[in-house]
Structure formats: C-alpha cells, structure tokens
Amino acid sequence: MADYDYDLFVIGAGSGGVRAARLTALDGKKVAVAEEYRVGGTCVIRGCVPKKFMVMASEVSHALEIAEGYGWSFDNARFDWPTFLEAKDVEIARLSGIYAANLGKAGVELVHGRAVLKDAHTVEIVGKNQTFTAEKILIATGGRPWKPESLPGIEHAITSEEAFHLPELPKRILIAGGGYIAVEFAGIFAGLGVETTLIYRGPNILRGFDDDVRAHLAGEIEKRGIKVVLGCQHEKIEKTAAGLVNHLENGMKLEADVVMFATGRIPYVKDLGLEAAGVELNDEGAIKVDPYSKTTADNIWAIGDVTDRMNLTPVAIREAVAFHQTVYRGNPQHFDYEAVATAVFSQPPVGVVGLSESEARRSCSNGVDVYVTRFRPMKYAFTGSDERVLMKLVVDADSQRVVGVHIVGPESPEMIQLAAIAVKAGLTKAQWDATCAVHPTMAEELVTLKEKQSGATSAG
Predict the structure, then answer these.
(1) Rounded distance, CA 458 to CA 398, Å?
(2) Known catalytic residue at 121
C-alpha cells in the first residue's frame, strides 16, 4: 500500500460506486470516490427517483377521475409545475446529501471532479491539477441518454435528463422511443394534462417484453389519451413560429412544443482513458468484464450500467457487494441475473419477473403451459372505465415450475416483488395454487388461475 495513495479508487458515485466504496472503507481500506456531478448518480439525481416522483404527481389526475365515481367532487383542482419542481429538487438534494454523508461516515474521501485514467494505477481529476494513484480501481460511471446526432434538427430535442428541469410544462410533447423510459414519460406528461404523442419505429412498444404485455399496454395507454404512432421514425425536426414540426419518414407531420428522445442509453465511457489503462470495450461499447466484474486490466473492475449487463439500480448495488466480497473478503461471488424482477412505471404500470412466453418456448424442451386473465379492477366498478388488468403465468410443462410472471395494472410493481420470491425459489404451479387467496384483491388472481390458455402447451 505504501506505493499508492489509496487501496481503492472508485470513479462514479452512483448507487453501485457508493456501495462498493462504503463497504471497502468499512473494512479498513483507504478509499476515494470521484464524482463529476452530484453524489447519487443516475438513479437518485436524474433517473428512477425523480421519475417516480413525477409519476406519482401525474397519477393524481386519474385518481381524481376515479374519486368522482365514488361521490367525491372537486372544484378548481389544478397542478402547478413550478411548485412540484421545487419540492422534487429539495428532496433530491436531501437524498444526495445522505449519500455523501454516508460516504464520509464510512471514511471514504469524496473527490469532486471528473476522473480519467492515465494508466492502470493512476487517475487524474480534469481541470484541477490533481493526480491520485490506487492499488485497485473500480469504474462505476453508469450510462447516458443517446439520441441520433446526425438527424437534422436534433439540437431542438431534449432527453430524459432535461425533462426533469423543463422551465414550464408544455402544451404538446412528442416522445420518440418505445422502451420503458419513453412509455413512462408519456404517462407522466399525459397525466399532467399535456397533449402527448409517442412514436416508435418498431411494430410495438416495450421490445423484449412478453408480447401479451406489449399489446395490452399499448391499448391501455391510448385509453389514457396518449396517441401512439408505430412503425415510423424521424426524418427531420423543423423549428417554426408555431412550434417544432416533426417530419416522419412515413410522410406524417406532427407539431409539438417539446420533442423528447428516449431512444436508449449508452455506457458512459467517453474520454475516460480506458485505452491508456488497458481496459477494453465489448462490441456494444460497454466495458468488457468477466463474471466477477473484472476488466481486461488486472487491477481494474467495473460494475453497473457502464458494463451494460442488466441496467437496474438494485443490480448495480448487488454487483458492488459481489465485487467487495470477491476482492476484499476472499469470497468470490458473482451476481445471479436469472429471475430478476423489474417494473415499468407506465400508466398503468407493468411488473415482470422471469421468462416471456416466447423465451420460455425456446428454453423449455417440452413446451409451456400459459395461464392468462384480463379483468376490470374492482376500483373502477363505479367509474364506467373500460381499463383492464392483464395477468399471465408461464409454466414449464415438464417441471411445472412457474418460470414467468407478467402483470399490467395498478400496483403491479408491488405485486411483482413478492411474485419474484416464488419464481426465484422455483415454486411449481401446484404450490401457487395451494396458496390461499386474499380477497378481495387483484393479487388473488395470481393464485386462482386454473385454466390453461387454449393451445398453450407445445414444444419449444
């Protein structure tokens, strides 16, 4: 250690980097973490936390509609964007402060600035004339939004990061993209009263999700007033006195006040100095790592979105724990990416764990059993709403293990967390059926599904 300033230097103070730094420092190692923006990273500062606040704010309008069906009346109910932004920013600052304080309590030195690699053991803080050496380095710089820079007029478009700080709420917004970020922000803006259009080049939204989920959600978000245009993409964006005119490749012209691109995120590796340190990228532009998060440099590891394995905050945290156990506790561990639950905070939301039907058909040698139900939630009984919940179980026909659970509807993110325990434990459909229902709830449908979908069982 005498030859280095630190035992461990972490680049990036997001959820993964902070957890790894704290655990290592608490073991008595000398640790520093560098952050070029604010402590907390994508999730806390410009991702899932502020987004969830925006989702909750936008859901109120739908709740008011439901309440009227139950006899409530509201006069002059209105939403004030500046008031919300101020409250959101105060809470984000508080959370960032907690992250920074916890680093300090653990004995981690926080370096404010952009760290780049000069060689395998040396980092430089750009513009501050500071250089540090470390025995080991952990890269946890996360990802950033991507947009097509060659598209004419792209300079007029924003990404999700700017959406958190719009000076005023637009009257019309066009969102390009079909992934979870796009559908989440479409729900947010529509719920806040913005005329919202979602365009996507593919045949349906949420590529990679179960086909029933994709089709069901596309129909449900249209019921919330979102216009969905599929199978097309931008040709150019033209700024006019009336707004931004979106020229699409199918000949359509759509006018909006704000254009937001949610067309994916890429690992944040630009100008990081990876080549100088012997750290290689994979074919997708992410840092190449082995199952234990070790890079192609012997003393450098990487975790989280910068490795583009499974880009979820809880996964980055678990990768950080595995790194610490492997490197500093002599207990080699790697994270198990099978049956990780995830949620899309669309409106209505989606909860998923395990395999889609098509994935299961490919991996289950003797086919699958599929159980599906669609129904109107009890809470809509008085409202006249035709919104429907989708629940789907995918079962390995041989072992009868439930290998996939898919829910679209109110509270699905809460339900899927508990369903994930059963899927991860490998419980069978018979064990699900043996579980007594809680009545009246939506979740009881998960343990009362008895009839297989017609023609569901077939070879993969």
Answers:
(1) 11
(2) no
